Please model this.
Amino acid sequence: EVNVWTDKGNQNPTYYVGERIYISFSVNKDCYLVLYSIDSTGGVNILFPNPYHPDNFVRKGRIYTLPDAYYRQE
Model:
């Protein structure tokens, strides 16, 4: 089981252009995970793994958040 949520949760899930979004996820068993983003035009981007987290092995019970402190601020 994979749980995925954003920093706004279910309260007001609307994001605006230029607004930073934080995506968190957790798993119930140690596993290898690939997290995709599919935009409204059908474009696909891989969010995880990524250059900052090249290893896609994730541990059960741990919460992973993207982006995290290792990401470059732009």
Notes: The mean pLDDT is 89. Residues 27 and 38 are 21 Å apart (CA to CA). The first strand starts at residue 2 and ends at 6.
